[in-house]
Automatic annotation (TrEMBL):
Protein name: Disulfide bond formation protein B
Spans within the Periplasmic topological domain: 27-44
Broad class of where this protein is predominantly found: membrane
Subcellular location: Cell inner membrane; Cell membrane
Cysteine disulfide partners in this protein: C36-C39
Entry keyword set: Cell inner membrane, Cell membrane, Chaperone, Disulfide bond, Electron transport, Membrane, Oxidoreductase, Redox-active center, Transmembrane, Transmembrane helix, Transport
Annotated family: Belongs to the DsbB family.
Organism: Acinetobacter radioresistens SK82
Coiled-coil segments on the chain, per record: none
Bilayer-crossing regions: 7-28, 40-58, 70-90, 141-161
Gene3D superfamilies, per the entry: DsbB-like
Protein role: Required for disulfide bond formation in some periplasmic proteins. Acts by oxidizing the DsbA protein.
Amino acid sequence: MQWGSYRFVNGLLLIASIVGMAFALYLEHVKGLEPCPLCVFQRIGLIAMGLVASVSVIHNPVSNIVKRLYAFLATLAMIWSVGVAARHVWLQHLPPDQVPSCGPGLDYLVDALPLKTVFQQVLTGSGECAMVDWTFLGQSLPFWSLVFFCILLMLCLWQLVRNYPYSKAVKKKY
């Protein structure tokens, strides 16, 4: 298996998803960092990308159209995570007087409100999303998540636009 093969790159994306979620769960359950609603939404995109990558690794499509479809779905998932992480970083860099007030927890929102309203409220952020609980090299967890998601997005985009060699199984015999 070559390092640039379609299946290998999707395997890397799958491993990155597993490692990212393992680290998030480690911080939550071992270090006691409770995820804010924006953190939960970032995880959704990472999990979705990992699911698409795992199906792609298992399926190992021959058709370039199917390869691009999987890459497109993974790209959409990573665009979601990048967007939410960027919003999170932006909230953390607001002046204290402009930070939105803390709202109810995600569990309450899901129980009490329609799904559309939950998405609107979570994506506008709240005061709890602006708190910095963990740093590494002077940067917050949402910043490092944004960097991680951008790298994964670049890999997904590369899978989407790259030239795939024609498989022997797809070539027509003349």
